[in-house]
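ok so for the tutorial part 2 we go from a plain amino acid sequence to predicted structure tokens. step 1 is just haveing the sequence, like this:
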Amino acid sequence: MVLSKLAALTLNYVRCAGKSGILFTRAPKINNLKSQKLIFAGAKSADDIAYHGSPFKFDAFDCSKIGTGEGCAKRGKGIYLFRTKSFAPYFANIRSKDAPPHIGCTSRLQNANPHVYTVSGLKSLNLKKVSLLEARSIAKTQRFFESENPLVDGIELPKGEICVFPKSVSKLKIKYRDELEDFVMLNRGTDFRPWTKDKKRLEKFI
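step 2 — the prediction. this is what the tokens look like for a chain of 206 residues:
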């Protein structure tokens, strides 16, 4: 049986338990999807959405993993997000064998499972806008900073990088979980930070 593209997309949705809705995994396993422009209903406004790239697949953020990522919590202890889509594939693929050279706190994984998470809930956060220098300072004295600023949920840097403090991670909701290549395919035309050194892998998105 040959499925229509819409039917194939519908059947590829994976429903996972959510606090106030459904977590979808969008899996566009269609050969000529490149010519399709997909519009998903019920999208949140841009100021409520951010993106998180991870070499792991999960259903919810786990605060016990905070501090074990690539950046060694150098901008603070918390969950890191970006308001733009550009950086998520880079961080999702950063522990894969084909990741570009970089300096970080982790090593390559034999079985990396890179995913990009579209996260909502930013409107419920009180984020303090800071410079890079201020972020580094806060990271060194975060416990004191949080005690002096109990209503602050996290910090945001000029380029839209966000660190959500552990106490406020529960305010975030994973709206979509996409495999890395599916996310790149769905967002063709985005100026992504280079996320792979494998030129053949990139050819499929041209």
